[in-house]
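Researcher: Re-running this chain for the archive, since the previous output was lost when a drive failed. Same request as before.
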Amino acid sequence: MEFHVDGLPAAVDMAAITDAIYNIDPAALVDIDPSTGALRVNAAMSADDLTTAISSAGQQADGLLVMQLPSNCCGGCGG
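Model: Regenerated structure tokens:
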């Protein structure tokens, strides 16, 4: 699933968040969109799992806007 997360502070601890997400999905892709400041996550997890991971990284999760994006999978890789 692909997610965009809004509402994180500018001084977010990306290393802690990335580690928490990798504990759920070691193949996840995690970054910050430089144009919007949104956290971008592509991982095999639910929105609730993502919110829990962010919270377990010591980041306040109340008030976050976690948006699950529609799938853009073509099925070509067999995944």
